[in-house]
Design a protein that fits this description.
Elements (H helix, E strand, L loop, with lengths): L1 H49 L1 E2 L5 E2 L16 E6 L7 E2 L19 E10 L5 E16 L5 E13 H37 L1 H14 L15 H44 L4 H27 L9 E3 H15 L6 E6 L4 E3 L2 H18 L3 E8 L10 E7 L9 H4 L16 H11 L3 E6 L6 E7 L4
Parallel strand pairs: 9-11
Antiparallel strand pairs: 1-2, 3-4, 3-7, 5-6, 6-7, 8-10, 11-12, 12-14, 13-14
Length: 461
C-alpha cells in the first residue's frame, strides 16, 4: 500500500514539476525576448536623440554610446545608421569584423524587429542576430532661406547567442532547483506516508501477535478511523473463540451425558438380565439418550453464527413457521398476526432466525388460547453500524408470574410438566440472543394479556 501510494504520488509530483518547469521556461523565454526587444528599442531611440547633421551633410553621432559594448569590436552589440543612397552610412566600432546583413531605409516613424538574421563573424563562422530598426528624419538648416529634412534609419543588432546564453543559464538554474525541490518533496512525501501509515503497521503487527497466540485481542489504542476495523477483528476473534469453546463444551457435555445410559446398559448385560427386562431397559435408555442428543444438538445449534452475514427478510421465514404451527395446533384454532415494519431485516444466519422465531412462536402457540402477535421493528442505531432489531411475541395465554420467569428460562425446565416438550426451547433462544450480544426480556403482554417475549439485538458491526 505504501509503495503504491508513494509511486502514484511520485508520478504526480514529477508530472507537476515537469509542467511547472515547462511553463516557467516558456514564460522566461517570452519575457527575455520582450526584454531584448525593449532594450534594442531603447538603444535605437538613444541614438536617434543624439544624431545631428552638419550643413555639409555630414552626420554627427555622440561619442559616448548608450552601452560600452558598442565601442568593443566583435562584442555582439552593433549599431548602424543608414543614410540615403549615395551617402556614407555610420557604423559603431563593434561592427568591425563581422559581416552584418544588408540594411534598408525605413520610412519616418516606421519600426521593425526581425530575427534571427544570418551574419558572418570575424572568424568566418556563421552566426545570427536580432535586429531592431527605426526610421527617423532630422531637420537641417541649409542656409538663410530654407530648412531641409534629412531621413535616416537607425539599426541596433545583438547576437542571438546573448539571448540563448541567458535562457541556458536560466534553464540550468531552473531545472537544478526543481530537481532539488523534487528530491526534498519526495523525501518529505516518503516520511509523511510512513508516518500516516504507521497506525496500519501497528494493526498488522498486533494482528500477527494475535495469530501467533502472543495476544488475545487487538488493543484499543488506535486512531478513530481504524477503530471499526479493530473492533471487527476483536469481535471476529472473540466470536471464533466463543464458538470453539462452545463446541468443545457441547461435545464434552454430550460425552459425559451418554456415559450414564451406556454404563447402565453395560451393567444390565453383565448381570444377565432377562430378555424382557433388557428390552425395557434398552428402550428406556435409548429414549433417554435420544433426549440427551436432542438437548445437546439444540445447544450446539444456538452457537456459531457468522459475524458478517447478509440481511435476512423476517416476514417470509415467519410465515413459513406459522403455517407449520397452525397445522400442529389446528385443534386450538390459534391465529397469528404480524406487525412487521417495512425494511426491517435480521443481520445473521437464516437458521438462527428460524430457530429464534420457531422457539418463540412455538412457545406462544403452545400456551395461547386463540391469538398470537409477532411484532418486528428497528432497534437502536449507531453511525457506520448495521441497525439493531426488536422482535416481540405476545400471546393471550395465562402468562408467566414474575417470580417464575427466571425459573422458566432455565435449561430443561418446563412451565408446566404436564405439557409435552424438552424444556430447552427458551434456553436455546437465550443462547442465540446472547451470541448476538442481545437481550431477552419476559413480561406480561399489554396487547393480548398473556406473556410477552421481547428480543432486542444491538447495532451490528
Amino acid at each position: 500500500m505504501q509503495a503504491r501510494q508513494l509511486m502514484a504520488a511520485s508520478l504526480g509530483l514529477v508530472a507537476f514539476l515537469a509542467l511547472a518547469g515547462y511553463a516557467l521556461d516558456r514564460a522566461f523565454v517570452d519575457v527575455a525576448g520582450q526584454v531584448q526587444r525593449d532594450r534594442l528599442k531603447a538603444y535605437a531611440y538613444n541614438y536617434v536623440a543624439g544624431v545631428e547633421f552638419f550643413r555639409n551633410g555630414d552626420i554627427f553621432v555622440p561619442e559616448v554610446p548608450p552601452d560600452p559594448r558598442f565601442d568593443q569590436p566583435g562584442s555582439g552589440l552593433y549599431a548602424v545608421i543608414v543614410l540615403p543612397e549615395g551617402q556614407q552610412s555610420w557604423q559603431s566600432m563593434s561592427t568591425r569584423g563581422p559581416q552584418l546583413p544588408e540594411e534598408e531605409m525605413l520610412a519616418p516613424n516606421q519600426e521593425e524587429f526581425r530575427g534571427p538574421l544570418p551574419i558572418i563573424k570575424t572568424s568566418g563562422e556563421p552566426g545570427e542576430v536580432f535586429r531592431y530598426g527605426i526610421g527617423a528624419a532630422a531637420v537641417q538648416d541649409s542656409g538663410n532661406v530654407t530648412e531641409t529634412e534629412r531621413p535616416y534609419t537607425v539599426y541596433v543588432m545583438e547576437d542571438e547567442g546573448t539571448l540563448a546564453r541567458q535562457v541556458r543559464v536560466y534553464r540550468t538554474a531552473l531545472w537544478g532547483y526543481l530537481g532539488i525541490a523534487g528530491v526534498v518533496l519526495l523525501l518529505l512525501q516518503t516520511f509523511v506516508l510512513r508516518w500516516s501509515l504507521w497506525p496500519l503497521r501497528n494493526v498488522v503487527s498486533e494482528l500477527k501477535r494475535v495469530q501467533r497466540g502472543q495476544a488475545n485481542r487487538m488493543s484499543e489504542h488506535h486512531p478513530r478511523e481504524l477503530q471499526p476495523l479493530t473492533d471487527s477483528i476483536n469481535a471476529l476473534v472473540e466470536s471464533e473463540r466463543e464458538n470453539l469453546d462452545h463446541q468443545r463444551n457441547t461435545m464434552s457435555d454430550l460425552a459425559h451425558s451418554l456415559k450414564t445410559p451406556l454404563a447402565v446398559l453395560r451393567t444390565r448385560l453383565d448381570n444377565n438380565a432377562s430378555e424382557a427386562e433388557l428390552r425395557e431397559e434398552v428402550d428406556t435408555q435409548v429414549r433417554r439418550m435420544n433426549d440427551l442428543v436432542g438437548y445437546q444438538l439444540g445447544r450446539a445449534a444456538s452457537a456459531g453464527h457468522k459475524l458478517f452475514a447478509a440481511p435476512v427478510a423476517i416476514e417470509p421465514h415467519a410465515e413459513q413457521i406459522v403455517r407449520g404451527l397452525e397445522k400442529i395446533y389446528a385443534g386450538k384454532g390459534v391465529i397469528c398476526e404480524f406487525e412487521i415494519d417495512e425494511g426491517v431485516q435480521f443481520y445473521g444466519e437464516p437458521g438462527d432466525l428460524q430457530e429464534l422465531l420457531g422457539n418463540l412462536l412455538e412457545n406462544a402457540f403452545k400456551w395461547a388460547k386463540s391469538r398470537v402477535l409477532l411484532t418486528a421493528g428497528p432497534g437502536a442505531t449507531l453511525p457506520n453500524r448495521r441497525p439493531g432489531l426488536v422482535l416481540v411475541v405476545d400471546d393471550d395465554g395465562p402468562g408467566i408470574p414474575e417470580d417464575r420467569i427466571a425459573y422458566v428460562l432455565q435449561r430443561g425446565v418446563r412451565g408446566d410438566e404436564r405439557v409435552q416438550g424438552h424444556g430447552i426451547g427458551l434456553s436455546i433462544v437465550q443462547d442465540l440472543v446472547r451470541s448476538y450480544r442481545g437481550e431477552l426480556s419476559v413480561g406480561p403482554s399489554q396487547e393480548l394479556g398473556g406473556a410477552r417475549f421481547q428480543v432486542t439485538l444491538p447495532p451490528g458491526l
